[in-house]
Amino acid sequence: MKSTKTARKKPARKPAVETVESRAERELSRGVERFEEGETKEAILAFEAALATGVRDAGLLPLILKNLASALQRLRSWERMLEITTSYVTLADATPQHHELVADAYGLHAIALQHVGRLEDALVAVNTGVAAKPIDTFLLWEKACVLVLRGDRPGALAVLEEVVTIDPDLKQGISEDEDFATLRSDPTFKALMSAD
Q1: Domain coordinates of the chain in residue numbers?
Q2: Where does the pLDDT of residue 45 fall: very low under 50, low under 70, confident under 90, or very high at 90 and above?
């Protein structure tokens, strides 16, 4: 007996539509992988591609800006870093209840400002970050850098004392930081770095 069944065709699958967020996430992930592998220029291209998607997701956009700023810092691309951190700060100011976001944005912004020679603005930026997250060693360390570069050795030493009180394991990094080269012969700095 012959089958009277006719073969039914499967409907063609529609190609998945990639959203702005999924493209941005893919590029962000690719950038993080490249950054971790030391391929900073490739990481920057990926982060820039993520940013170019026009993503506005409140969780994703800050991550893209933070990672792009960090990669630009590694390459010492200060002017471009300043552009990105300015956007990051604007975003952080729109969500001031997110203390971590405010602290990260202003800390990175202070670094960029410091390296383009805008020390007064860098101090304002880092103080804004410290106000949002007072015991953040990254921010305090950056504040000490700005203070010493402005010539405020006592202020820098006071902040460094606070940093090593919070986390004594940072002493070696502080000792090696070129921003503190002018402090290395200072007896207070030496005592601070050798104290247990």
Answers
A1: 19-75
A2: very high
- pLDDT tens, residue by residue, 129-143: 999 999 999 999 999
For the chain, the C-alpha Rg in angstroms (whole number) is 23
Residue 12 pLDDT > 70? no
Reported pTM: 0.85
Q: What's the per-residue H, E or C state across the chain?
A: CCCCCCCCCCCCCCCCCCCHHHHHHHHHHHHHHHHHCCCHHHHHHHHHHHHHCCCCCCCHHHHHHHHHHHHHHHHCCHHHHHHHHHHHHHHHHHCCCCHHHHHHHHHHHHHHHHHCCCHHHHHHHHHHHHHHCCCCHHHHHHHHHHHHHCCCHHHHHHHHHHHHHHCHHHHHHHHHCHHHHHHCCCHHHHHHHHCC
